Amino acid sequence: MAKIRPRICLCAASALALMLTAAPAAAWEPIKPVEIVVAAGAGGASDQMARMMQAAIQKNQLMKQPMVVSLKGGASGAEALMYMKSGAGDPNKVLIAYSLIYMLPLSAKIPFNWRELTPVSVVALDQFVLWDNTTLPYKNVKEFVDAAKAANPPFKMGGTGSKREDHVLTVFIEKRTGAKFAYLPYTSGGEAATQLVGNHTASNVNNPSENLEV
User: Fold this and answer.
1) Where exactly are the structural domains of the chain?
2) Cis link prior to 153 (omega < 30° from 0)?
3) Looking at the DSSP assignment, which residues form a beta bridge with residue 153?
4) What pLDDT is attached to residue 2?
5) Nearest-angstrom CA–CA distance, 95 and 195
6) pLDDT tens, residue by residue, 123-160
7) Which among 150, 158, 167 is positioned nearest to 189, based on CA atoms?
8) Quick check: pTM over 0.70?
9) Which residues pair with 124 in a beta bridge?
10) Architecture of domain 130-212
11) Residue 12 pLDDT more than 60?
């Protein structure tokens, strides 16, 4: 049971797009530290990606200015979106983005439109996978779903934020199978993975990189 989501690196500044169309890309260089904004807490896939980019750029000396990672996962990621909106015109702020950028404004009614961001590059594709703890007796999806249907109280499903991809996938599983889950939002995929390893939740729909790190 897997879904694919792209993670896109976006910049809030339309000035960057104008600069790149006016001159060759190699002509522009940051004049101050570049900030990679992550719309989640520590340990999730977006945080891992940001730090991988940071390490690769620094190791290969791809730019003179340092690159810093800012975790802004408050309000299920709305903090990051509004922070990017406030930085319009600043080409030194980059967001690790995914379907959050259009789903969250619709569900949370925040004054943000993904078209305010300038796409830079698609850098990865992540799969969503349904996981449970290896100490549980369920060896396939059918066994897990049958147990979830019979569970009282409902199984706890951990995820990253409320009304985010993990939450949507949980509802999707409920509608497709008839099972009901108690969805518990955490600040990151890393925290959701830790809760699953500790048997505080019965399952999650994390990316492999998030669960395998724990």
Assistant:
1) 2-127, 130-212
2) yes
3) none
4) 38
5) 27
6) 877 788 899 998 999 889 999 999 999 999 999 999 98
7) 158
8) no
9) 7
10) 3-Layer(aba) Sandwich (3.40)
11) no
